[in-house]
Each structure stands twice: as C-alpha cells, then as structure tokens.
Amino acid sequence: MRPNLFRLSFAFITLFMLSSCKSEERQNAEKPNILFIMSDDHTSQAWGIYGGVLKDHVQNLNISRLADEGVVLNNAFCTNSICVPSRASILTGQFSNKNGVYTLSDALDPGKDNIAKLLNGNGYQTAIIGKWHLKKEPSGFDYYNILHDQGRYWDPILRTSENFHKPAEAWDVHKGFSTDVIAQLSIDWLNQRDLKKPFMLMTHFKATHEPFDFPERFNDLYKDIDIPEPESLFDFSPETTGRSFPGQKLENLAWRYEQASNDPEKWWCKYPGLPFYTKDMDSIEGRKATYQKFVKDFMRSGAAIDDNIGKLLDYLEDSGLAENTVVIYTADQGYFLGEHGFFDKRLIYDESLRMPFVVRYPKEVPAGKRIDDIILNIDFPALFADYAGVKKPESMQGQSFRENLKGNTPEDWRTTAYYRYWTNHAKRPGHFGIRNKRYKLALFYGHSLDMTGSSKENSEPAWEFYDLEKDPNENYNAYNDDAYTDIIKMMKIELKKQRQNYDDTDLKYPEMQEIFKTHWN
C-alpha cells in the first residue's frame, strides 16, 4: 500500500505543480505587454494630429495610425520641461524634489524605486534601448542598450551591461542613423525575449533633439517650399507680450549654425545642411531664414521617427502581439518651433509644457478618441503598474489614468497641473506655476538656489498670468489686468495648495521664503 500511496502522492504533487505552472502562464499571458516609445523634444506642433501651422507638412502616417486606433491625450504635461528630469519622473513617478533629479546635470540614483524594478519583480521582462541620459547605470532592466550621454545621430555609440563599466573603446559602435539603429535593436530584442513572460520595452529615440539631423532618404523633403510661420515668430522682446524675461531666441540658434559653419570640427554637434549664415540679413530676413532651416530639419528628423514607429507596429502585427500590447508614443517634453521667436524648451508655456501622447491597446482602449483630462508624466508609471496588475508603491506621486482612457474619468481626478523648472538663468529664470483648463499662473522667482548648471546671477521675481481661452498662444501677460484680480487670487490659493500637496514648499531656502513675503500678495 505504501508504494502505491507514495506514487499517488507524487502524481498529485506533479499534477498540482503542472497546474500551477499553467495557471501562472495563463496569468502572464493575460497581462499586456507594454511598448513605450519616446522621442526627444518631438513637440506636439510637429505631430500633425494636434493641428497647428505644420499639420499639412509633417510626415505622420504611423503617428496618425496610432491615433486612429487609440486615444490621444490633449492635455498631457511634463512636470519639469528638460530631458533628464522628465525622464527621471517618468521612471519614478515623482516630482524632481522627490527623486532628486532637478537639472540636466543631475543623475538618477540606481537605488531609487522605478517602474522597471516594480514590473521586473512581478513577472515582466524589462528592457530599455536608446536614449537614457540619466548618467548612472540603469537599474531594474533585464537588458539595456543605451546611448552614451546625449548620443550622436550617426554611427551611435551604445553601452550594455557587458561594457558599461569598461573604457570607451570597449563600447559598441552601430553603423547607420540612430533612429533606424534603435528601432532595429528593439526588434532584435523582441525576437530573442523570453516568450513565457510579458514584456515592458522602452524604445527611446535621440531624435528630434538638436542638431535635428535626419537620414539621407529625407534630404529633399521640403526642398524649394516655404513652411508656414507661427503667428508669434516676430516676437522680438518681452515688451510685446508683457512676459518677464527674454527667452532663448532663434538668433541664438542662427549663431550656433554660424559657429558650426566656421569650424565644424570644434563645435559640439554636427548640424545638417551647413554652411548657413544670416549676417548679411536684417532682423526679419534672418529670423525667417533661421526658422525655415530649423523647422524643415526638425520635421525631417521627425519623419524618420514616424518611419520607425511603423516598423515597430508592423512587427507587432506580424508576430501576433498587437492585440495584447499597450503601445504608447510620446516625447519627453515639448519644444518651441519659432513660437514667441523661441527655440528649445524649459518654460511653462504650452509649446514646452505639453507632452504629445497617444496610446493604443485594442483589448481595452477605444479607437479614435481624445480626452481632455490633465495627465502628468508622473502618472505614466502608475498606468504601467495598473496594466501589469501591480499595486503602485507609496513613493509614486502620480495616479493611473487607465479608467480615463476608457472614458471613465474618476470624479476626483485632478483639474490642475503643477509645474516647476529648477535651473535658473536670466534668459529663462527658475519658476513654478499651475495650469488648469482655462488659466495659467506662474511665478518666475529667478533665483538659482543650489541647483547645478544654474547662473550665479539672480533676476527680479515676476508673476505671469494667461487666459488660455481668450489667448491660447499666451501672447498677453494679463497679471496686471484688473478683470482677473479675483481669479488670480484663487489661482494663488490653488498654487499654494499644490505646492503643499507635493511637498515642494522651499522651506530650506530662506531666500525663497523672503520672495514669498515680498511678492506673494
């Protein structure tokens, strides 16, 4: 009897283990894969699906394909519009004052909790390919293959766990254009992944970051045509709008083109289409010429992104993964394309603040919809955790917007976005503010505090206020307009509340407390 009993017990245990394994496989199979595609600076004005003067010129076949098959966010905003801090917030779900990444010079501590660690510990295979930019070695990823520093467009250098700590000569050089290379490396990883696990793959393109380069197949795109200009292209000074600072003007980009034209080997980046000069032009001609070169190069760089999004979508379709894969395409922040006469980002103005965002998940997300809810980049990892069936950690300040995407916006969903840019220079002072669906209020406090990469000079604090319904392009600072006195008072109360909610009260900075006493009235 005992041998039979032993055999029965063994058979029962084996059956139980097999059943458990199959159950685990079923659970994993039900969990969606996540493909998070993110570009650098690929602002909403250059997507086409958000309208604007470029909408009929951008090449967006695959971005439009995603929009037609998924949901577009009209009001997704970053919390600190600069590459390194925004990426840190997307990984940690935290504002800069919580994750410690305030400026371009800061690094993300590998010991910090992040979404890759969370999913990796809950059955997901995780990978990041392309731009990292967070200085220290990535943590939480089964596999990484990342650009060195900012990365270069041609023959990019990438670093893996095998060579990350080795000398530079041991890093890998991949022949070709970076956007093409990063997409192909992503497909290569998908082909060799563990098929028993769901995956989270972050594919991060360098494009469309300065110097706005593009592959040779787009050399003649926009040749011999003039691109429409934004309404505020010829905004030359703060006096025209009442803003409190000069900003990063297109003339500075023209100067960079000139320096690179004069000595391309010594300049920090290689712009396409040089030489380029405006020195014999008047101010209007010079700005027009700079805008045309800049925006054409930008859109050509964006066309290469769209191409490669198509390759990734086709791969998912051909491999049968499309139905159970959440596909997101976004950019780490916005970017000025001549609006206010500016280029670059960093500011709370919408061109810089807004993150274009589209998500497709056929099993759950309705096709061809748009939502106006205010979403922040700190919400992204909470959404991923929700899809993975994992409770988000207390450290994450953001919230999942999964129900919002289905059209079921929670009654207590935020109606206000809080923003803070920490780096301080006279052209673009340190500032914080809030934006709701109609109004925007910001205090440009103009002090460098202890922020890395900031100027030693401070500027006079100043408030700015915009009525986005009457002035959607933020061309009139209405802070001193008596018609808005009561609204501004209420906005200041809300701003203080938001700062308290996110524990961003500057108590350790006496100079900030003095500014509040003097200027917060």
Quick summary:
Helix content is 32%, strand content 15%.
Strand and helix map with partners:
Elements: H1 2-30, E1 33-39, H2 61-69, E2 71-73, E3 76-77, H3 83-92, H4 96-99, H5 115-120, E4 125-130, E5 143-147, E6 157-160, E7 172-173, H6 178-192, E8 199-204, H7 250-262, H8 283-318, E9 325-331, E10 336-337, E11 343-344, H9 350-353, E12 357-360, E13 369-371, E14 375-376, H10 380-387, H11 402-405, E15 417-421, E16 431-435, E17 439-444, E18 462-467, H12 485-501, H13 510-519
Parallel strand pairs: 1-8, 1-9, 2-13, 3-14, 4-5, 4-8
Antiparallel strand pairs: 2-12, 5-6, 6-7, 9-12, 10-11, 15-16, 16-17, 17-18
C-alpha geometry:
globular
Protein structure class? alpha/beta
Number of strands: 18
The biggest beta sheet reads: 10 strands, mixed
| Percent helix | 25-40%
Major sheet strand order = 7-6-5-4-8-1-9-12-2-13
Which percent band covers the strand fraction?
Answer: 5-15%
Helix run count? 13
Q: Measured on Cα atoms, how large is the radius of gyration? A: 24 Å
**Which residues form runs of ≥5 with pLDDT under 50?**
13-28
Alpha-carbon distance between the two ends: 89 Å
Mean pLDDT: 94
Please provide a written account of the structure.
- This protein has 521 residues and is α/β, with parallel strands linked by helices.
- Helix content is 32%, strand content 15%.
- The protein is built from 13 helices and 18 strands.
- The strands form 4 sheets. It has a 10-stranded mixed sheet.
- The longest helix is centred in the middle third of the chain and has 36 residues, at 283-318.
- Mean pLDDT is 94; it is low at 13-28.
